[in-house]
Design a protein that fits this description.
single chain, 242 residues, alpha/beta, Rossmann fold, 4-stranded parallel sheet, 7% strand, globular
Length: 242
Amino acid sequence: MFNAAKIKDDIIKWIQDYFKKNGNNCCAVIGISGGKDSSIVAALCAQALGKDRVYGVLMPNGKQHDIDISRELVSHLGIKHFTIDIKDSVEALLASIEKTGLSANKQAVINTPARIRMTTLYAVSAIVNGRVANTCNLSEGWVGYSTKYGDHAGDFSPMSQLTVTEVKEVGRALGLPSMFIDKDPEDGLSGLTDEENLGFPYDVIDMYIREGVCENMDIRDEIDRLHMINMHKHKLMPCFFP
């Protein structure tokens, strides 16, 4: 049985150990989206390092309909934070690409903001002497629902081996208000929820990962397909050795 209180304490200690070995005087830098993952990682880091060593970075791409939740989260935790609008950077890059005669397709339009957000986090990290937190969870990772070198990147990853169900339990063990845990997950880029993009809810993925059970054969096959084609995101870059 999943013991959320114990796992919460174990993650906090793990974060503390990471920083002792990889930057004893460094701080944690976290992209705050308003969703459960970034909220819970920020709360874990605040407990592990103290709120003065945690920086939240809000990165709207122009208008963000749920940015107020991000603001409430950083206020609730009492962490330092910045708001950096990435809209001009995204549009400038895509416009430069268009000048070459290439036309940005849907994949480029959706993934480019995620990669610019990660570039922004590393820029902030360089300025404040930080380490960038990865906020992915196991359920997303299992089906490749992340952007390579975008939200899939980071220096340390507290929750990448926890399913969405388990992440939520850790959030409750931290005492976070429900608004930061139970908000419908969305990528903030396509205008759709994760379930709308994937075609099935996370609890179906979670049960399949932990118990090997998925009653809908079509969904099971799709989960297997997504898992297989996205394995490259979890492996080191292939290198040729002479």
